[in-house]
Design a protein that fits this description.
By secondary structure, this protein is of the alpha/beta class. It contains 14 helices and eight strands. The chain has a domain of 195 residues: Rossmann fold (3-Layer(aba) Sandwich), CATH 3.40.50.1820. 42% of the residues lie in helices and 18% in strands.
Length: 281
């Protein structure tokens, strides 16, 4: 599998948008109502290469390098949730639209839910894909911090592959191309110098003060699709059920034999779930 095959026959562009003071990289395809795809911690827009063609048939799809991630600018301060929300609001304003649909994985889902709770007028529909922000398990965080710091400090094929394999139910899902894409991002001195800011929410104290609460989720007005998996390494299905109970207009779908990247591991099923929800089918 290759990202080039994912985009075969699909007009798309990579470009940068000035979102307030932050020059922001996006991969864009399609036309229609805007749909922003938001990756997880230490990730990048290519997390969604297997989803863009299907969604671009119906939407203007923008896979975003979030604040400090990928090839987006890296302001020098700790990135807590409000920093990510401000960046996304600036991006929405820069697009010249009032409202977008949001589909976020892990950190991206955490930020999307927070934004939807505080700015319901800016969000149409909301898809939360194994979202973060509900738990603060020190053992899980220690494992993820270690894998991520090792991969960024010394981005060899082995360290980067180990970080990517942590995401998957089946480690064989990690392609050589995906490893190469992430190594190119990590293997830059300016990216490595920003690692502490990037991993702020993997430290216990800032994570706890940024956690989503039932009260915050109750303020989400957008129709919401939650996707959880049977092999998510961050949290089990009952956490997805908690999201479903806490958000007024939410439904939960559990994908089997997937880990933290179901949109990549089983793109056809994920795309079907996502598009049925977004299109109101």
């Amino acid at each position: 599998m290759s990202a080039w095959l994912d985009f075969a026959g699909v007009p798309f562009s990579q470009h940068w948008i000035d979102a307030g003071p932050v020059r922001t990289r996006v991969i864009e395809a399609g036309s229609g109502e805007p749909l922003l795809l938001l990756h997880g911690t230490a990730g990048h827009a290519e997390a969604y290469t297997r989803n863009m063609a299907a969604h671009a048939e119906h939407f203007r799809v923008l896979a975003v390098d979030m604040l400090g991630h990928g090839y987006t600018d890296r302001p020098d301060h700790p990135y807590e949730v409000e920093s990510y929300v401000t960046h996304l609001l600036d991006l929405i304003d820069a697009l010249g639209v009032e409202r977008v649909h949001l589909s976020g994985e892990s950190l991206g889902g955490w930020v999307a839910a927070w934004l939807a709770s505080e700015h319901p007028d800016r969000v149409g529909k909301l898809l939360l894909n194994t979202p973060g922000g509900a738990t603060a398990d020190e053992n899980v965080l220690e494992r993820l911090r270690g894998l991520t710091r090792n991969a960024i400090a010394d981005p060899t094929p082995e360290t980067v592959r180990a970080r990517l394999e942590w995401l998957m139910a089946d480690p064989a899902t990690v392609t050589d191309e995906l490893v190469a894409i992430r190594r190119a991002i990590y293997d830059r001195p300016e990216f490595q110098a920003n690692v502490d800011n990037l991993l702020t929410l993997l430290d216990l104290e800032p994570r706890r003060r940024n956690l989503l609460t039932e009260e915050r989720l109750a303020a989400v007005q957008a129709p919401t699709q939650i996707v959880w998996t049977t092999h998510d390494p961050m949290a089990d299905v009952p956490v997805g059920e908690w999201f479903e109970r806490s958000i007024p207009d939410a439904r939960l779908t559990v994908m089997r034999e997937c880990g933290h990247w179901p949109q990549f591991e089983n793109a056809p099923e994920f795309n079907d779930i996502s598009l049925r929800f977004l299109l109101g089918e």
